[in-house]
């Protein structure tokens, strides 16, 4: 059976979403058409609105429809002197959800990847360098991913910061809290050993 | 962190899709905004087009944007004299994918459910009764789901067909081909026993 063209196109467009295979796309399309037509129109409107309006914060580069995002707009965040460097807006969200960090962010929207032709300017390091020169940043916290590219990117940014005599730190990597050693991957376990801390017995 | 309103609304609208939890909705929204903006607009257009144009086939009630669906439009299907009753358009698709059945369908878009106020007319049984009276149907094949409601619906339709002296059959339920007894649920195993067939030794 050939489904009618409008249904076929809807299923194919749904497959563009991450994690949606042919079966789920079909289930989604039928559910929308059978009993969520208003929801379907709401999603269409939300997609159009977001794609047309959402751009990047001119201070930290995260996704927002405002010129300056909700975090950069808070004076107490800017005054903290802390600048955390992450690869994606999702990383910002994950860190914010801990409630632990109260400084600012800079979102690279990627990482250095010379083989893919992604150099410093492509991830906004020209903007970051200017910010480090002009703003009273006291500490740069490197929270790029613990991958080869993330580490190389962190190293490159540490260099930038050192040239401005700004202190830099790298977030700790190791065994997740509550995780069992047995199920932790080798690289993480390696990080956990090389980053081990002396226990102060005093 | 409060995400900006347009991103928040996109995440909430994506959660209307079946099987999409808060984490996947967030991942989908960020992926669209970071590197699939054209895909996002394509999905918005497909949703609008499908919701506005797709209705029900006037012969079999399945979802289609044409007055009569691609199956009902085939004379050799209509001439087969076979009419298979299913609950949803997805069931039609599943049966079509076997390539085994070459007759027509009638899609209930649900099943009888007196407790939810869903009676015969709500699942198109008035239209079906008319079709059984007026068309030369030779066999009604009941392929509703093997649930309490599906069985009750099949029973009700078998009655309708018998009043027109039309032969009826129920598709077989039992252990899936390739399935292991050990992993089959009790109800299916019960069906498999009660529907057992004599092995002809000749
Ligand atoms: Zn910002
Ligand atoms: Zn039809």
From TrEMBL, chains A, B:
SUPFAM superfamilies: Recombination protein RecR (SSF111304). Pfam families: RecR_C, RecR_HhH, RecR_ZnF, Toprim_4. One of its GO terms (biological process) is DNA recombination. A zinc finger (C4-type) spans 57-72. PROSITE patterns: TOPRIM. It comes from the Bacteria. GO terms for molecular function: DNA binding; zinc ion binding. Keywords: DNA damage, DNA recombination, DNA repair, Metal-binding, Zinc, Zinc-finger. Residues 81-176 form the Toprim domain. InterPro entries: DNA_Rcmb_RecR (IPR000093), Rcmb_RecR (IPR023627), Rcmb_RecR_Znf (IPR015967), TOPRIM_dom (IPR006171), TOPRIM_RecR (IPR034137). PANTHER family: RECOMBINATION PROTEIN RECR. May play a role in DNA repair. It seems to be involved in an RecBC-independent recombinational process of DNA repair. It may act with RecF and RecO. Belongs to the RecR family. HAMAP family: RecR. This is Recombination protein RecR. It comes from Pseudidiomarina salinarum. The gene is recR.
